[in-house]
Amino acid sequence: MNAERPSRFERIALEVQDAKDVQESLQIFQRAYGVDFATYHLALTIVDIVDTPYVRTTYNAAWVSRYLLRDYVRIDPVLREGLIRQLPFDWREVEIPQAAHEFLMDAQDHGIGANGYSIPIMDKSRRALLSLNSRKAGDDWSATIAQYQEEWLELAFLIHHKAIFELYGAHDPVPHLSDRELECLHWSALGKDSIDIAVILKLSEHTTRAYIKSARNKLGGGSITYTIARAMQLRLIQPFGNTPS
Fold it and tell me: Which helix (H) or strand (E) holds 173?
């Protein structure tokens, strides 16, 4: 008996997964779904005091150069919105500030479509965004989104994992910490000891110590002071920001 043939989506996913790099993955995505341009943006990719963004795009070189020279990243409403939102969104949902109107007109003058769809990706302390751009009219673009949005979401994560591997190989510098480990580090950074944290989190002191020990091991096995500093550097905790839920 012949094995069942893979579906169209499965073939696309395999091509994306087997592509030599993120750039090629985006080109495969663009061709498969008939979008005009595809862009992947990863924030906080290099662990340092200064963030180093990682961007791959199928936009033409002339527009990319203009975007960089004019520092459009400061006012690009889709990028700003995408690194805040948690759910995929149609660009028509984004409120455009007055300062960005000239940027959007310039983009359209350089062949960029008026419509788009972006998929935020959250991974550990990192945020990424896959954005698709189209010159299709509104109704046609709405129909395309409705037809393919579930597939696009799966492919966005495939591309994201390819980007992480492209940057770090098998040695991703950002470890995975559980919610409890992060909560314990958060309160430790605020000066609480294991007894205090146990009361706050309604855990036993023994369990609290185990979470702290586990977090320390994952972050290099140093002192609690080193562990807290490392967790803050990796943006795993923000003790002077919001309190974890």
Answer: none
Q: What is the CATH number of the domain that holds 223?
A: 1.10.10.10
Predicted confidence (pLDDT) per residue in 186-196, tens digit: 999 999 999 99
| 107 and 142 both lie in a single domain | yes
Residues in the chain: 245
Strand, helix or coil for residue 94:
coil
In what order do the strands lie in the sheet containing 89-90?
54-57, 37-43, 126-134, 115-123, 89-90
Pair 184, 212: CB distance under 8 Å: yes
For 88-114, what is each residue's pLDDT tens digit?
999 999 999 998 999 999 999 999 999
Residue 45 makes CB contacts below 8 A (sequence gap 6+) with: 51, 52, 53, 54, 126, 163, 167
CA–CA distance, 209 with 203 (Å, rounded to integer): 10
